[in-house]
Amino acid sequence: MERNQHFLSLRLPGLNRSIKIGFLPGCLPVCVQCKRNYKSKELCRSRDLHTDHPWKTTYICITLDHTCTVSNNTLINGPFIARTVGAQPFCFKTDVEAKTPICMTCKKKNYTRAYCRIKMGHRQLPWGTTYVILSADSRRQSNMSSNEARLGDSTGDLETEEVSEHEGGDDIHEVDESRTFLASVSAKSCTINWLAHDENFSETMLNESVCNNPASIAHYHAQQHNFHSGQRFLPVQHSPQQNSYGYSSSRHWPHQQTDPHSRRNQWYAHGSDFQHGGHFTASHAEDRHYRQNVLVAEKNHQLQQHVQHRHPTQWQVQDQYHHRESTQWQTESFHSTQWSRDPHYYDWNMAHAEASYDRRD
């Protein structure tokens, strides 16, 4: 499991030895050097195994085990072992600044920092906090001499000197009754603040954070195993939906009787009812596909398409008009043809015209 985690060599102010803390991949930002070189978390923490402090502030909630202190709640000098756990019921003792990240509840609701920290006064820990329990390493402590346990080696002293002293934070040696503090770690500073027990903490918040949920860590390890096995980037076969020949039948389209285009057939079928009665039939009016604004929608659609379609009743009336014009044109054409071909037909028409003229006089 350790080879799939990202580790941070935490150097707390007041302690001479570093603490190795494991993070779920993606929860620990890159170091300063990799940030300047635009490297990803995978390259920084997984491939190069960098354990330096992150370039931006990362929050770690640390609970001291009973093995970390001796009589009178005096903190020992180490070494310590960190174990990642789920969310713990702790919060800030006082109101926090507006620049502090929002809590998990406000994060889910997409609220702002001003709403969370100033208006509502939430004292819950930031949503990306990692929770660990600190214990004394008895194996390493038994192998160390008394001088090394009291002063620490030179390497540990050099590492603690790289981090600035806590500014505005609490003293780690003054152990609070909650035995839990929040470490705000970055490449520029590292401060701690003792926490209080959160009375409003609910059981549903135990595994809210992905960065400290053991179940999420186990799920991530399973995904990593599939990745190393070559099963993560397998192509997905998207086969088109295979519909049968009778897919457009009534059982697939319950609101239609024949096919998806039967609405057009119903429109022309009830055109005669609208022509004679001025309204559609009752069965047609009750159909959910024909509402009061159907004619308006059809007219607007025709105007948008720049096509002057007419109602079926208009087609019928117009067809009668065209039929009358066509009959008259055929009669005139017949007379003109006979007039040009038959001389007797010409004489009969002239006599008929003269008789009509004399009768008019």
Report on the architecture of this protein.
With 361 residues, the chain is of the alpha+beta class. It has 3 domains: 227 residues, no CATH class; 48 residues, no CATH class; 48 residues. Helices cover 39% and strands 12% of the residues. The chain contains 14 helices and 9 strands. The strands form 3 sheets. It has a 5-stranded mixed sheet with strand order 4-6-3-7-8, with no helix packed on it. Strands 1-2 form a two-stranded antiparallel sheet. A hairpin with a 4-residue loop joins strand 7 and strand 8. Helix 13 packs across helix 14. It is elongated and about 145 Å long. The N and C termini lie far apart (123 Å).
Topology:
Layout: E1 6-10, E2 19-23, H1 32-36, H2 41-47, E3 58-64, E4 80-85, E5 90-91, H3 104-108, H4 113-119, E6 130-136, H5 138-143, H6 146-151, H7 154-162, E7 180-185, E8 190-194, E9 196-197, H8 214-228, H9 262-269, H10 271-277, H11 282-285, H12 294-305, H13 312-341, H14 343-360
Parallel strand pairs: 3-6
Antiparallel strand pairs: 1-2, 3-7, 4-6, 5-9, 7-8
Task: Give descriptors for this structure.
361 residues, alpha+beta, 3 domains, 5-stranded mixed beta sheet, two-stranded antiparallel sheet, 39% helix
Summarize the structure.
The protein is of the alpha+beta class and 361 residues long. The chain has 14 helices and nine strands. α13 packs across α14 (343-360).
